[in-house]
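Supplementary notes for students who missed Thursday's class. We covered one full example, reproduced here. Read the sequence, then the structure, then the short commentary at the end.
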Amino acid sequence: MNDLEKKIKTLSNEYFEEIQAIRRHLHTHPELSFQEFRTAEFIEGKLIDFGFENIQRIAGTGVTCLLDGRRKGKNIALRADMDALPIQEQNKVDYKSINSGIMHACGHDVHTSSLLGVAKILKKLKNEFDGSVKFIFQPGEEKTPGGASLMIRDGILENPRPTTILGQHVMPLIDVGKVGFRSGKYMASSDEIYLTVKGKGGHGAMPETFIDPILIASHILVALQQIVSRNASPKIPTVLSFGNISGRGATNVIPDEVAIEGTFRTFDEEWRAEALTLITKMATGMAESMGASCEVRIEKGYPYLSNDPVYSDRSRSYAEEYLGAENVVNLDLWMASEDFAFYSQQIDACFYRLGTRNETKGIISGVHTATFDIDEEALKVGMGLMSWLTIKELSDHR
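Structure (token representation):
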């Protein structure tokens, strides 16, 4: 263990109880996307306590600040998201959410508290590295258009422009003490599909008098699966799923219209655009061929997330130095989406996973569930490893 590694691990242990308390405070007081007003104030207060002065608001509830090292050099951005989910928490813990129907069920409290820990560590070690660090506390990851897109719109990647950006995210499938990396394409794009099939309602016993939007909607749903099975290249992972259909008729009442909601996800931007066009043409054309109409509304979501191969491989090697190669695992493609993808489309990015699982303690629930929690030992790894990756990257003069 070299001197710098020893210093970071010592500080991670020293600051653990404080960062744990911050994480529990955030978990107890979650706020929904783009409503993180108290969270932003809390973060600003902590940064002031840590000795930061150039703290700024951006994109409404976003918070950013800059830390300069001993001399000029590269700038690396570090990002944590802050928002919670509309879920009623079922955990029986002292730090359970007190905000009804809102919960940090995706670990953003972990990301934010860890980044505050990184800020405190790097502030202490600012004479150990050249260059500067841009801390990004981002709102609205869970809701389109994505807080990352708004942060970029408002200039977060300028003045100074980071050479790289680093992000970490909890992963309950990985044991605490371990982390996961993947170079290249990692997470899918995501778009929301809203279809409204409009026919003519009537009495179920009189089919000659109505245009059945339920029957037509069922044909459209089945036909749209051909978008994936007969149009998508098998080399491009693609998912088209519909999770909600509502007709609001009755056993003998045919409604006037049927609403359908779904999601489209893939890993290629050209195919993404082509597929959304095909979805629109197929849905409208089939409805018209059966005497009805179909309104198609597509809410463009996040692009696919791609980790820069060179930067990610370099970061992985640094992680192996810090944690040991046995504690750094390979990640597979992930069909979920993340608005960190917006950053990855602009600059070299590395988005890795922080293990939080502990079967012995019963901490096994997945993200976006009412019983999600973490083994808080992950906070030591979260703030320590990100600090190490940051200083190592700033020290690399390639």
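Commentary. The mean pLDDT is 97. Residues 3-186+304-395 form a domain with the Aminopeptidase fold (CATH 3.40.630.10). If anything here is unclear, bring it to office hours.
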